[in-house]
Specification:
252 residues; mainly beta; Jelly Rolls; six-stranded antiparallel β-sheet; 13 strands; disordered C terminus
Length: 252
């Protein structure tokens, strides 16, 4: 069970964080998926003083992003896991630079469905910095990583300090084995440390599923390469973005 999955405590209680991670309301410029609050992870770096054309804002938590190795250690991932995950995005080795992440340990039964609602926002463009957001899921028996959105994913302007966004989408994955897991969510930059990107996350939960554990073991283990996202920008999301989630739209 995920604790504080909607961030309605108004803070990151039950979560651990590195880098620029905070809880925001619709005043940030994008409406939460549900309730009043959403978590926000950014690449905003105070070294660039919150000035365009670099990072568009100072870190909202007061903490700068951290280097990729800190994120990987924090999430229990092998060294250069994020580079391996993004290997099809750039023909450049060791391209991931810095970012921010949150994590939570939870207990789940085999056959449960983990869902994360997210909205990826960026100032970057494909062929520029190629920033991306990702989800990791680890346990004693499982090591999973998924790119869920990149600079090429947004399809609409944003009312936030960033130029464009995807709107809220839903990522879902089956839990293959009963046990303790660590869910990680992050956003990182590639090649540079000054192209602004962020991810809002909300309504994170684990629920019973109709899929069998056997099916889930066959279909969900392993690293999802970026080519899958490149072929299908929706990747494995079970819902398209909903225009009602845009700031000013009807509440859910």
């Amino acid at each position: 069970m995920i604790q504080n999955g909607g961030f309605e405590t108004g803070n990151l209680s039950a979560w651990e964080a590195v880098g620029d991670a905070s809880v925001q309301t619709a005043s940030f410029g994008t409406r939460p998926k549900q309730g009043l609050f959403q978590a926000l992870l950014t690449t905003f770096d105070s070294r660039w003083q919150g000035q365009q054309p670099y990072e568009p804002a100072l870190p909202l938590s007061g903490n700068d992003p951290v280097v990729h190795s800190v994120i990987e250690a924090f999430l229990g991932l092998p060294d250069h896991f994020l580079d391996a995950l993004s290997r099809d995005r750039l023909d450049v080795p060791l391209a991931v630079t810095s970012g921010s992440a949150i994590k939570q340990q939870f207990q789940a039964q085999a056959g449960s469905l983990l869902s994360v609602h997210y909205n990826f926002l960026t100032d970057g463009g494909w062929g520029n910095a190629n920033d991306f957001s990702f989800i990791s899921l680890t346990s004693e028996r499982v090591l999973l990583g998924f790119i869920i959105a990149g600079v090429e994913s947004p399809d609409r302007p944003s009312n936030s300090v960033l130029a464009k966004e995807t709107g809220y989408r839903k990522f879902s994955i089956g839990v293959p084995f009963t046990g303790q897991y660590v869910l990680g969510i992050g956003v990182v930059e590639m090649r540079d440390t000054y192209t602004g990107s962020a991810i809002c996350v909300d309504n994170i939960n684990v629920a019973r599923s109709t899929f069998s554990a056997c099916q889930l073991r066959r279909n969900t283990l392993g690293i999802t390469p970026y080519m899958e996202l490149k072929r299908d920008p929706q990747h494995i999301h079970s819902e398209p973005p909903d225009d009602k989630d845009r700031l000013g739209g009807a509440s859910q």
